[in-house]
Amino acid sequence: GESVGLHLPTLSVQEGDNSIINCAYSNSASDYFIWYKQESGKGPQFIIDIRSNMDKRQGQRVTVLLNKTVKHLSLQIAATQPGDSAVYFCAETPLAGGSNYKLTFGKGTLLTVNP
Amino acid sequence: DSGVTQTPKHLITATGQRVTLRCSPRSGDLSVYWYQQSLDQGLQFLIQYYNGEERAKGNILERFSAQQFPDLHSELNLSSLELGDSALYFCASSPEPGSYEQYFGPGTRLTVT
């Protein structure tokens, strides 16, 4: 597959460890925050989202934490597996209204899981 | 497999030319989104259509245009191409017009020489 980006922040973990991927956002008006995963040579894939009135949301092996005070979002992956190796993007969108549903994506973090 | 198809997979063309990228959304999805992904700009939203009508616009250049047809497939037209237009172009779809859970296609890699 093709590399998504050559100058991304990287995180390297051992298989079975927990991973934490961080994201800072700047728009205080953002209402939804979303994490996407992009494997090499593929399009992004939705993982989990969280609304601004929440500070934590859990999915299958993933947890998203939102700290609005410092405008910080994190994605925690439990028991990381080789299949989790990918670029992870956080995205934000402002309060839904009218037709303004566009997503603003962060630069991404490359997660590498070592067997 | 997300169910979203894009053609062609790769496209190589010269500066000044015009190309058309095609997207077929997932069965039943009425909303289509186009994104551009480049090394320096990252993943950027271009434009969204819902059931044939334009719903939202992002950082789309005037040289670019899109449309969604009655059968819900969408085309992104890129004209007067420049070297900087070389990028991956993704199409995504969702059943609702404002869904944050979007299903992305495999992308079209455009290279402008």
Q: How would you summarize this macromolecular structure in one to three sentences?
A:
With 115 residues, chain A is mostly beta strands. Chain A is built from no helices and ten strands.
Structural description of this entry:
The complex is a heterodimer of chains A (115) and B (113). Helix content of chain A is 0%, strand content 51%. Chain A is mostly beta strands and 115 residues long. In chain A, strand 6 (62-67) and strand 7 (72-77) form a beta hairpin. The model of chain A is unreliable at 1-6 (pLDDT under 50). With 113 residues, chain B is mainly beta. Chain B is built from no helices and 11 strands. In chain B, the strands form 2 sheets. In chain B, strands 2, 4, 5, 6, 9, 10 and 11 form a 7-stranded mixed sheet that branches. Chain B has a 4-stranded antiparallel sheet with strand order 1-3-8-7, with no helix packed on it. In chain B, strand 5 and strand 6 form a beta hairpin. Chain B is globular. The N and C termini of chain B lie far apart (31 Å). Classes of the chains: A mainly beta (115), B mainly beta (113). Chains A and B meet through strand 4, strand 8 and strand 9 of A and strand 5, strand 6, strand 9 and strand 10 of B.
Which properties best describe this structure?
heterodimer; A: 115 residues; mainly beta; six-stranded mixed beta sheet; four-stranded antiparallel beta sheet; 51% strand; disordered N terminus; B: 113 residues; seven-stranded mixed beta sheet; globular
Anisotropy-based shape of chain A: globular
What string gives the helices and strands of chain B in order? EEEEEEEEEEE
Helix content of chain A: under 10%
Strand-residue proportion of chain A = over 45%
**Could you give the order of the helices and strands of chain A?**
EEEEEEEEEE
User: What would you call the quaternary organization?
Assistant: heterodimer
The profile of the biggest β sheet of chain A is: 6 strands, mixed
Mean pLDDT of chain A: 88
- Which consecutive residue ranges of chain A, at least 5 long each, have pLDDT under 50? 1-6
Q: Percentage of helical residues of chain B?
A: under 10%
Question: Structural class from helices and strands of chain A?
Answer: mainly beta
Rounded mean pLDDT of chain B is 94
Q: Enumerate how many helices of chain B there are, as a single number.
A: 0
CA-atom Rg of chain A in angstroms: 14 Å
